[in-house]
Each structure stands twice: as structure tokens, then as C-alpha cells.
Input
Amino acid sequence: MRIFSERRTAGVAAVVVIAAVGVLASVAVAAPPALDKLRGSVTADGSSTLGPYMTAAAELFSRAGAKDVRITVGISGTGGGFERFCKGETDLSDASRPMKNKEAVICKTNNIGSWRAFTVANDALTVIVNQDNTWAKCLSVEELSKIWDTGSKVGNWKDVRAGFPDQKIKLFGPGTDSGTFDYFTEKINGKAKRSRSDYAASEDDNVLVQGVSGEKGGLGYLGYSYYEANQSKLNAVSIKNPKTGECVAPSVATAQNGTYKPLARSLFVYAKGASFKRPEVQGFLRYIFDHEVAIAKRAKFISLTPAQLKKSRINFDLAVKASAK
Output
């Protein structure tokens, strides 16, 4: 398997290129092409949260036995991914939130044709603190908003809650092109993109991990898989469920059963209609749904529930039928 990597400082976009191809299971709609018959390339870009999942999918896809499709996975953020998608530059757009109406309008204005959205995984957006932070074990939505909302001047943990120590807070978070930024600000501050701006921002979640792990008073938020991969460096903060008042930790179980509110979410892949007609694109997505649990395990992601996976498979089969017309 050939893997090439490239990192651009502009927009903090990272790209992983993987030579991959494969399909192990057919669907009832039509028998897919044999592995050694698939050729071409698949270009995906978007969510940094979903990046490890798509990279793992491409790697496992390659190991399925074929080798003549080149898959590129970029992580320029959900917003940046949709921007490229709507310009016709990518086949797939990885997203940690649904496409916005204004983004759909741009896609239509640019005449990129139809597209399909597929739910591929779940996430428990995770609030992280430094390992030496022994006080912030659970925070409420109100306390998080007190820290992160527009105009907030909170700069010390003692100002968050009585009893917290006199320790300066250093904030880290995703940039404004990030779907994680949109989701967090909407659920915590009441409106997408409403946030204080005086924090260390990056579209690269590994930079956020480094930042919080290097500051005793560090606080940030990112996708669950990045916390899962860096548990030795970070602590995850439980979130007080707004309805029950119970402190709930991010986990596979709490994300799937709906108790991790309000920060549990679904993750999506958007496929351009014209691209979906190509066997290599269709084959890659088919592989994802046929091996979703294995991909999620490899990437340390939260897999779809059986009901979600069934719905995604039906959606995929309908897309296959439509593309054959």
C-alpha cells in the first residue's frame, strides 16, 4: 500500500493520499465490478474530525486486495470541504454537520449537479483538559457558555465555579471553517459561530491535543477519536445532561444511547452525483457500509447503531439504483 502525505500551512489543511480500491460484498441492486477491474481516483476533503475515519477506511479498502484506485483524504474543515465540493473539485465531502442552505445554494449556482448525503459514524464531541486538572471533572452547558460565549472575559478557573483553583485558563479550539466549531457553538452558546475569538485556533486536532496537554489550565474541544487516541495526555470532561442533571462522560455507549447531550452527533459523507456514477467512488462507499464497524474500531470512532446502519445501507442502495438510470 502506498501512502503519501502533504501538509499545507495555509488554512492548516492536511492531505493523506492512499492507493486503495476494493469491494468485498455485493448488494442486491447490482453485482459490483471485481476488485482488479476498478481504476481511477477518489478525492475527499472536509472535516478534520472525520479525517482519521476516512483514512482508516481507505487503508482497509486497499488491503481488501485491489490497488489501482488512488484515494486522497484532505482535512481542511467541514466548511472548507464544502467550498471545494461546491466548486466541483472533490468527489466526496466529509462533514461533521449537515450542509447549510447557503452552501447548497452555492453548489446549485455552480451547477455541480445532484449530491447524496450518507451518515457514516457517530461522535461524542469531547471537552478536554490537561491531565493535571483534577477539578473540572464535570461542567454544565451554562459553565461552558460562560467560558466560550462572545464577549466572555473569563480567564481563570476560579471564575468558572466557586471552589475551582486560581489557575489561568488557556483555550484551544477549532477554526471557524470547522463543523465542530459550528456544532459546539450552536449547542453551547445558542448560535453557530457565536464564540469568543481570543483562543488558540487550529483546523488540525492534533495541534489542539498538543496545546491542552502542554498547559495545566488548558481547555479545548474536539472529536472523540482524537481524545480516545490521546487518553494518556488528556482528561475528558463529563457534561451535565440539561434534562436529567446527570454528569455524563463521552463514550461509545453514551453517544449511541443519546444520554451524552447536547454534544453527541452524527458524521456525514456527501457524494457528488456525477462522481457516484463512477465504479471506484461507489465501490469505496460500499466498502464503508459493508465494514463500518471494523473501520470505526480501527479509527477509534463510534460506530453507527444497527438502526442507523440499516438506514444508511437503504440510502446507499437507492443511490445506486438512481445512478444506474
